[in-house]
Amino acid sequence: MRACRRIRFSYRSHTDARSRREIKPYAVLHTDGRWYLIGYCLSRKALRTFRLDRVMDLEVRQATFKRPAKFDPRSYLNQRMPFIQSDYQIDVWIDMSIEEAERTFAPWRVTTEKDQDGTRLRCGRDRLKLFAAMLLSMGRRIVIHKPAELRETYRDLARQALLAAQPLAVEESRAVSD
Fold this sequence. Notes:
This protein is α+β, with helices and mostly antiparallel strands. 29% of the residues lie in helices and 40% in strands.
């Protein structure tokens, strides 16, 4: 990218469709545990975003290009990144004002909306445990609208928390039995 050289690679889409692409790479960004490549795709004649874990057989080409001077990759990804590629579509209510939610949650693949006395939070995520723990750390009441798997994730976290809260009792019972 620094040398402004085109790249060619094989790509596997979220629907498992395979294609061969040649692009002018503009940026690589990390979000939600994944790396994304943004660039101008020569076959589609448009800006495209590619998950790096789906890129195979990458070749650096001799052809060069000029990167657009005013291209803002973070804004582009924020506006264009679809939730559809995530394994889970999350929809929760949190007991937090919309103003606080907008300061707390980066607008990165997350939408916030005022809902009664709290905020409705919608986003796509692949790992529920990390997201659930982050919400729990806010210390606020949470209402899960979807997915149902998020409830089971909280049950698992609760079991782990209960076990973590009991190490002294385990150690004391070992000492008594010795």
